[in-house]
What we know:
Blueprint: H1 2-12, H2 17-24, H3 28-35, H4 44-54, H5 58-62, H6 75-86, H7 91-107
Helix pairs in contact: 1-3, 2-3, 2-4
GO molecular function: DNA binding; DNA-binding transcription factor activity; protein dimerization activity
InterPro entries: Cro/C1-type_HTH, Lambda_DNA-bd_dom_sf, SinR/SinI_dimer_dom, SinR/SinI_dimer_dom_sf, TransReg_Diox_bact_type
Pfam family, one: HTH_3
Amino acid sequence: MIGERIRVLRLGKGWSISELADKANVAKSYISSMERDIQKNPSIHMLEKVAEALEVPVDAILNDPERGPKERLNDEWLELVREAMASGVTKEQFREYLEFNRWKRTNNK
């Protein structure tokens, strides 16, 4: 989904993958792999670079415009993600936390 939104935004500007890659200072192959959903979990840093090049907020890449505002990732959540990444929390550690939290909720009922 992220890749499709990047592709739509890029094509809306009339840019090739090479042009977007140059403007975002990201490898052309990386942009291509995101658009083809080979790279399904790009870092927030990469998404920020692509969003800046496309002149849109990161939210425009992360969220489906068809979804309601309550489902969108707001600035506070984005900041929490940035803080977690800066503090060294890995994706795997975060997934483990989520799994533990689900287990805890299920077993406390």
